[in-house]
Structure formats: structure tokens, C-alpha cells
Amino acid sequence: MAIEAWYMDESNEDPRLPHHRNPKEYASLDTLSEIGVLYWKLNAKDYENDPELKKIREERGYNYMVLIRIQCTIQDLLDLCPEKVENYEQKLKNFYTEHIHADEEIRYCLEGSGYFDVRDKADRWVRIWIKEGDLIILPAGIYHRFTLDTTNYVKASIIHILMRLFKGEPVWTPFNRPQENHPARKEYIQSLTEKVGTPVAAH
């Protein structure tokens, strides 16, 4: 099954709600490809031995991998829940603040689910619902943000695990909007104008 994506409404309600328009307006894989967002469906149960993931990493030069755990139990790396994290709500707001990165942002959902929101060519929000096995690549310079979905409040034992892939050493720096003069943003806008690149189909 292909990834689900749709245009968002303008509501200020909880960002972890779906925020569909009325009527619903879905965004296709072609729509995502046009703004540089790439997608694969992989086997999250065996990511350590997945030949498709290995192929993607080799072809795109991703030589560094970090696991992020967003959950409500004490585990390694990053725990995001009210019981375990100081300033929990502020951290969620930080993730949801519109920003760009100077490099590609690669996210692979191993368990759970959440939303990546990206801006299209007309500056409208497109919400991408990532679930287990979804790998997305956001181009450098695209405005985007992240939030958990409503499963965050249903069961504290639900685990949201993302894999972050990098070229070279990991870079975590977000640059909050506005960033129109940032080199990565300028290159991204130019790539849209010139229609550089070939869309990659879902796997």
C-alpha cells in the first residue's frame, strides 16, 4: 500500500489530528515527487538485513545511521513523553516549528506512526502520514515539520521509532522559517523552477 498524503486544512486544532480538508483532497506520489519528496516501502521487521535498504544507502551515499525512539518508557537515545522528558510540550512544539535543513532529511519509520508536513509549490501544507516500513526523503531546503499522530495518547506503550540516515557525519541543525536566503533554500527553489531530477516511484 502506498503512503497516504493529503492537503491540510487551516485549523489550529491539535496538530496530532489528521487535519483533512472538507472535502478531503489527497496528494499523489507524483505530487510529492514534483516537490522533491521521495518514497519507498520497505521491510521494517528486518531493517538490519534488508537488501533494498542497503541498496538505497549505497546508491545515495548514506553511510551513517541513527535510531530515534519516541516513546513513553526509558530506552536509549530519545524518549518523548510527559513522564520522561522535561518540557515535553515545548519539545513537540520545536519539532512542529516550520524549518529547513541544509541537507536531505531521510526518515525511516520502523514502528508506530506520525506526520511529516511539507510545503508544496503554492506554499500549501501537504501532510504525509508515515507508518511502519515507510521511508521518505525530504530534499534540502524544503519547508517542513513533524508531529506524532493521535496514537501518542492512546497507549503509552506504543513505540514510535524512526531511523535517520545521513551522508557523512550526522547534521541535526534546523533553520526556522524564514530562510529564503539560505543556500539550501535557494538551490531547492531553483531545482523546482528548472524541474531538475527524475521522480522516483514507490517501491
Detailed description of the structure:
It is a single chain. The model is unreliable at 71-79, 153-161 and 196-203 (pLDDT under 50). The protein has helices at residues 29-34, 51-60, 88-96, 151-154, 183-194; strands spanning 4-7, 38-41, 64-70, 99-100, 105-111, 113-119, 125-131, 134-138, 144-148, 160-166, 175-176. It is α+β, with helices and mostly antiparallel strands and 203 residues long. The chain is 20% helix and 28% strand. The strands form three sheets. A five-stranded antiparallel β-sheet has the order 2-8-5-10-3. The chain has a four-stranded antiparallel β-sheet with strand order 1-7-6-9. Strands 4-11 form a two-stranded antiparallel sheet. A hairpin with a 5-residue loop joins strand 6 and strand 7. It has one domain (29-192): Sandwich (Jelly Rolls). The longest helix has 12 residues, at 183-194. The radius of gyration is 16 Å and the shape is globular.
Query: What fold name stands as the CATH topology?
Result: Jelly Rolls
Shape: globular
- CA distance, first residue to last residue: 10 Å
- What is the number of helices? 5
Please write out the topology.
Elements lengths: L3 E4 L21 H6 L3 E4 L9 H10 L3 E7 L17 H9 L2 E2 L4 E7 L1 E7 L5 E7 L2 E5 L5 E5 L2 H4 L5 E7 L8 E2 L6 H12 L9
Antiparallel strand pairs: 1-7, 2-8, 3-10, 4-11, 5-8, 5-10, 6-7, 6-9
Key structural traits:
4-stranded antiparallel sheet; single chain; Jelly Rolls; disordered C terminus; alpha+beta; 203 residues
